[in-house]
Structures are given as structure tokens and as C-alpha cells.
Design goal:
Blueprint (H helix, E strand, L loop, with lengths): L2 E5 L1 H9 L4 H14 E6 H13 L5 H11 L6 E3 L2 H10 L10 H13 L3 H7 L1 E3 L2 E3 L3 H23 L8 H11 L6 H10 L1 H14 L11 H10 L6 E5 L4 H4 L9 E3 H10 L3
Parallel strand pairs: 1-2, 1-6, 2-3, 6-7
Antiparallel strand pairs: 4-5
Organism: Koribacter versatilis (strain Ellin345)
Protein name: PIN domain-containing protein
Length: about 270
């Protein structure tokens, strides 16, 4: 089975703004498309939609460009909501939230690319066939903000001594409860094996959070990276990031080799003749 790959938000920002040159982008993405099947992470898509929502209409085209880059690499395949993804790939259970199914996200992609401005995207709708579709950006922002706020709260409580650091069993049980899977000893072991990188990343964040100079507001992207790592529950999935510190945070993980750093791929692609 061909390996799968998806990109983080920062890479798409760099490609859209020119911090990754077109030549570099073409070389690396040709290599990725040869070696992997390209997928779009729902959490990457959501983060880019938040940027579209919070930016003024004057910057709509600029912020939309990042999303166009996301959708530019051939077939649009999707990795859905991370928790449901773990349910499916670690336990063979069906997903629970169906408005994030691939067919819905393909409509989103066409709407985002086709919108001429924010008003059309949110209010007027983009015509597809006999219907017009829009996206409620305020709902996207609200969902992301709630997730990030809960993440920050848990780290602050740890730093302030309100809560204690989780061990592997407690962490796994909490995740099982979240995705509505019975917390049997067998399932605890299974989910820890499937989400090993996410556990070690959480552990590293707990260490960072204990430092009083850790700025939660500036590091809210850590919440996103945590969810991206949950996709490694599928053993064929690889995650490409521009964050050079991320691999060090999961160095103890058996899934470490499936987290690829963009700058390393530049030399790999060159050696392979792309």
C-alpha cells in the first residue's frame, strides 16, 4: 500500500508568501507525489480557515491563496476529525461526526477556491450545480478557539499545581473516553501504540508548561500539532512539518520516523533527482 502524506499549516503559509520558492516547492512536492499519496488534514484546513475568518476582506485573496496551495497537489483526499480517525484506524469503529466526511470536505474545497470575497463565502454562497454553498467561518473559529482554550487551561492547571501530570495509562484512558471507546486494559495498550507520538508530544508540552516564561498565547499552534500527530494512528500516514523542534519533542516515540521536516526533504528530493 502506498504511503500517505499531509502538510502542516506553516509550510502552506511559506509557499503562499514566497518564503518557500516555487522551485523548491516544485522539487519537494514532485518527490512527495511520487513516493506518497497526498492527503489534506482537516486540522490544517481549519487553521487556514481561521486565518481567512480573522483577516479583513482586503486580505481575503492573500489568505485564500494559502488554501489554494493546500488544494493544489492533485487529488483531494482528506484526513477527517482526528478523534474519529483514531476510532476508525486503531479500533475499526465507525466515525461519529459525518459532516467532516470526505464528500463534504470536497464541497468545502470547491467553495473556498471559488469564492470571490468573504461575503460570497459566508453569506451569498458559491454556486455548484443547481445549489449555492457557503461556510460559516464564525463557527469554525469558535470550534478552534474552544479546543485551544481547553488545551491552554490543562497546561496552566498543571503548571499551577491544580492537576498532576498524566502517565501513559491515565493519558490513554482520557483519550479513550474522549473518542467513546471502552477503557479496557487491551484498549489502553492499543491506543497508546497507535498514538505514541501524540503522547510523547503531550509529555514534552507538560515539561515546557512548567516554565514560567512559557507563553501560552504565542504557542497555541502546539494544540494543532498535537492533533496532527494523532493521524499517525494509521501506520501508512506521514506528517511533513516546517517546525524543526517538533521531532525532538517526540524523539522517544516509535512513530518519530514518520514525522518529516521540510528542510530535510529539500536535500532528499535533490538527491533523488526531483
Amino acid at each position: 500500500m502506498k504511503k500517505k502524506v499531509f502538510l502542516d499549516t506553516q509550510i502552506l503559509e511559506y509557499a503562499a508568501t514566497g518564503n518557500i520558492s516555487k522551485r523548491e516547492w516544485d522539487h519537494v512536492t514532485r518527490y512527495l507525489q511520487c513516493e506518497y499519496r497526498y492527503y489534506i488534514s482537516l486540522h490544517t484546513l481549519y487553521e487556514l480557515l481561521v486565518g481567512l475568518a480573522l483577516g479583513s476582506n482586503d486580505y481575503f485573496s492573500h489568505n485564500q491563496k494559502r488554501l489554494k496551495v493546500l488544494f493544489s497537489l492533485g487529488a483531494r483526499r482528506y484526513l477527517g476529525l482526528a478523534g474519529d480517525f483514531v476510532r476508525v484506524h486503531a479500533f475499526g469503529l465507525p466515525g461519529r461526526i459525518h459532516h467532516f466526511d470526505p464528500e463534504h470536505l470536497r464541497i468545502w474545497a470547491r467553495v473556498i477556491v471559488g469564492a470571490r470575497d468573504r461575503w460570497q463565502l459566508e453569506r451569498e454562497g458559491v454556486g455548484l450545480g443547481t445549489r449555492a454553498y457557503g461556510i460559516k467561518l464564525d463557527e469554525v473559529v469558535s470550534q478552534v478557539d474552544r479546543g485551544k482554550a481547553q488545551h491552554v487551561k490543562s497546561l496552566e492547571e498543571l503548571r499551577d499545581g491544580v492537576s498532576k501530570r498524566s502517565n501513559q495509562e491515565i493519558w490513554s484512558t482520557s483519550l479513550l473516553n474522549l473518542i467513546e471507546v471502552p477503557a479496557t486494559p487491551e484498549n489502553v495498550t492499543r491506543i497508546l501504540n497507535a498514538t505514541d507520538a501524540a503522547f510523547w508530544y503531550s509529555s514534552a508540552l507538560y515539561d515546557l508548561a512548567k516554565a514560567r516564561n512559557y507563553n501560552f498565547d504565542e504557542r497555541d499552534s502546539d494544540w494543532l500539532d498535537y492533533h496532527q500527530l494523532l493521524y499517525l494512528a494509521d501506520p501508512t500516514v506521514h506528517f511533513v512539518t516546517a517546525e524543526v523542534k517538533l521531532p525532538a519533542r517526540i524523539k522517544k516515540s516509535v512513530q518519530r520516523d514518520r514525522v518529516l521536516v521540510w528542510k530535510d526533504l529539500i536535500s532528499i528530493a535533490a538527491k533523488r533527482g526531483f
